[in-house]
Amino acid sequence: MSSILTSATQTAHSVAATLLSKSQVQPGNAISFKDVKEEAPDQAAALELKGRNIIVGVPGAFAGVCNAQVPGYINNVQKFKEKGIAEIFVVSVNDAFVMQAWKEHLANGNTSIRFVADDQGSFTGSVGMLFDASDLLGGPRSKRYVIVTNGDKVEKVAVEEDPGQVTCTAAEKILAQL
């Protein structure tokens, strides 16, 4: 019985990831944050993108590779600002409690980087970055990506072919391209 339930759950997660995700966002497309949470789990809101921004999408808070990637952005905030970046957002399909705990873990809460919970995957799906990670992370998750925007218009998109690697989405690589 449990194997039937497990199989049904995995199928449902795979279908949900497929339905929530649309084609991947491209330069020139407009985007908006949909139903994300930053401060509290009961306060969903769309975040406004003003000026040039960087959105760093990661598969999971506290995951090893994500823990290795995000400090590059934290440590280089000033360099990004010098290149004209107004804000950096770290987005994951996790809840607000987890994202705030992760921010505290990585930076003792002392960073201007905004850690955003996309607990329903609505933003991640709207930019075409949702994938089925049921086998490893229990359900649909975010691909590892970076989107550079100017306001709500996409300037650049970098997506890792293997979400377990950090190559084209490393802070130093993105910084060099600005």
UniProtKB/TrEMBL annotation:
The keyword Cell inner membrane does not apply. GO terms for molecular function: thioredoxin peroxidase activity. Keywords: Antioxidant, Oxidoreductase, Peroxidase, Redox-active center. The active site is at C66. One of its GO terms (cellular component) is peroxisome. SUPFAM superfamilies: Thioredoxin-like. GO terms for biological process: cell redox homeostasis; cellular response to oxidative stress; hydrogen peroxide catabolic process. Pfam families: Redoxin. Residues 6-178 form the Thioredoxin domain. PANTHER family: PEROXIREDOXIN, PEROXISOMAL MEMBRANE ASSOCIATED PROTEIN 20. Belongs to the peroxiredoxin family. Prx5 subfamily. Thiol-specific peroxidase that catalyzes the reduction of hydrogen peroxide and organic hydroperoxides to water and alcohols, respectively. Plays a role in cell protection against oxidative stress by detoxifying peroxides. This is Thioredoxin domain-containing protein.
